[in-house]
Amino acid sequence: MLLFGLSALEQELLPARAPALEDSLILRVAQGDTQAFSELYLRAHKAVYGFALSIVKNQHDAEDVMQDTFLKVDAAAGSYQSKGKPMAWVLTIARNLALEKLRERRDVPLEQEEDWHLWASVDPTRAQEDKLALEAAMKCLGNEERQVVTLHALSGLKHREIAALLDMPLATVLSKYRRALLKLKNYLEEREAT
Length: 194
Description:
It is a single chain. The chain has 194 residues and is an all-alpha fold. The protein is built from nine helices and no strands. It has helices at residues 8-13, 23-30, 34-56, 59-76, 86-104, 128-139, 143-153, 159-166, 170-193. Helices cover 66% and strands 0% of the residues. The protein has a single domain, classed as Orthogonal Bundle (Rna Polymerase Sigma Factor, Chain: A).
């Protein structure tokens, strides 16, 4: 079975989608329900981390953004307005915090190593080779392509939602997604051939 038009090897390298969030979960967080906050974190932390990493491009800043996102979600949950897109709301907060982090560190080089395997599910049986392949595959993508793939594959956002979140035309998001999948496919085919 193909997921997002990817082969079995490609599916193995990409992390699983985050479970969907419901409006009621955010509303329970707003009421101070710590169980709901824990559940929200468990469902969304990988997507938030992966998305933040695709913007800030280093592990430590992505971790900071992820933590700050959940602190802000907890503080702002009372002002959440139910529109049926709680993951988009959480990721908008993450995006704003990640962009703020970039503005704070303008003088810091962006070429620091990305640790894509950290937002993939941690599986002790997964070969180190697969982790390296995932990192290399994600590095072959441009920034916006990586963000689109991360948002769609990890967060389960629809292309329209990604377009709104990234402030891009839907056609551009679809084009970047198709181009990214083609790049990933070509990379993985070349890798299998060697």
